[in-house]
Amino acid sequence: MKPLGETKRHYWLAQKMAKATGADLVAAHEAGDLPQEEWAELVQNCRTCDWTEGCDRWLKEHPEAETVPETCANCGRLTELQAEASEGMQG
């Protein structure tokens, strides 16, 4: 079994990925769309990811992106939050 990545590093990777792709974790949490437990799960998913080094490189190359890379362990949920943030800006 692969050891989990360091919590603090993956917390910041998840935050950076969300910011780069327009998925506002703080706003989603404040709106009730991202409960604390789910936010912690995003970090935990990131800790299990095998793409950590690739993620670091991707984030440096894409400070702003329209889509979450499919290789991201949190691609599905971040894409949902990205869409919710987009809808909030339009409505």
Give a short synopsis of this structure.
This protein has 91 residues and is mostly helical. Helices cover 66% and strands 0% of the residues.
Report the biggest beta sheet as strand number plus sense, adding barrel if it closes: none
Can you tell me the number of structural domains?
1
How far the N terminus sits from the C terminus, by CA atoms, comes to 45 Å
Number of helices: 5
Assembly type: single chain
Mean pLDDT: 93
What is the share of helical residues?
55-70%
Strand content: under 5%
Order of helices and strands: HHHHH
Report the count of strand segments.
0
Structural class: mainly alpha
Query: Over all CA atoms, what is the radius of gyration?
Result: 13 Å
Low-confidence stretches: none
Net shape: globular
